[in-house]
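re the bet — no i am not wrong, look at it urself. input seq straight from the record:
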Amino acid sequence: MAQALALVGQLGFAIACPMVAFIGGGAWLDGQLNTAPWLLFLGILLGVLAAAGALYKLSTGLSRKSGGSSPDVPYKVEKGSETSGTNRAKKQRHNGR
């Protein structure tokens, strides 16, 4: 239960903090530079992108902790069957073909 609440808190902060920072910064700069509403729109866009990036990092970190596949680990290589390339050539030579 505590882990679930911690996850909810992390997700909330991962979304809210970048949004508040970028939107607030854009609104403040609009007031200072008299460029309303353009920097506010830029702040909204950057806030959404930063929140998406934080959520992506959080979710990929969670999948690695829970035993999900890691992109750093190569795929499992299986042994070839009897009809694979080199075995097939050996078999043909053995059969006289």
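see?? The first helix runs from residue 2 to 33. told u. also Residues 7-57 form one domain. so pay up
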